[in-house]
């Protein structure tokens, strides 16, 4: 019988998200570079290959999943477009070696992306394959990634253990699925404050 594990939805804060990546949009501290009428903050973006900008459209669906992946050659980034709100599920990076060590199910965290900021995931950070839009029909994200990583994902016959991306299937591994729950009404509170 399949085990269903609930993951509570939580607000996206710098402190809570630090083990998984950086928030893109809320500017920390002083700018790294300035000139008259311009301030610039550098993010800790890392990439081994060629950078690629895509628009990813995540279609509305129930926030349930059993697949997680991680990218080893890029600090993948997602920035919501048009104020799109969604849920992103992550787990801490595990060692890069083979065989791939799956994240501990107890370490999974679900963050509410409120449409005002985006995310950048550290290399090796596990994440659900999809963001989960909070309302139909979809949520669009500007997506900064690596050409070689995306080529591997799109052409691989064995997506479980690629050179740049690794995937874990909790359904096959431990007959386990995950579901995000908003037991504290976080989404309703944020929506009513706008």
Per-chain topology:
Layout: E1 3-11, H1 14-17, E2 21-24, E3 33-35, E4 38-40, E5 51-59, E6 64-65, E7 67-71, E8 77-80, E9 86-91, E10 109-113, E11 118-121, E12 126-128, E13 132-133, E14 138-146, H2 147-155, E15 165-169, H3 170-174, E16 176-181, H4 186-193
Parallel strand pairs: 1-10, 1-16
Antiparallel strand pairs: 2-11, 3-4, 5-14, 6-16, 7-12, 7-15, 8-11, 8-14, 9-10, 9-12, 9-13
Report on this model:
The chain has 194 residues and is mainly beta. It has one domain: Ureidoglycolate hydrolase (Jelly Rolls). The chain has 4 helices and 16 strands. The protein has helices at residues 14-17, 147-155, 170-174, 186-193; strands spanning 3-11, 21-24, 33-35, 38-40, 51-59, 64-65, 67-71, 77-80, 86-91, 109-113, 118-121, 126-128, 132-133, 138-146, 165-169, 176-181. Strands 1, 6, 7, 9, 10, 12, 13, 15 and 16 form a 9-stranded mixed beta sheet that branches. The radius of gyration is 17 Å and the shape is globular.
A few lines on this structure:
The protein is mainly beta and 194 residues long. The chain has four helices and 16 strands.
Order of helices and strands: EHEEEEEEEEEEEEEHEHEH
CATH topology: Jelly Rolls
User: How many DSSP H or I helices?
Assistant: 4
Number of strands: 16
- The 3D shape can be described as globular
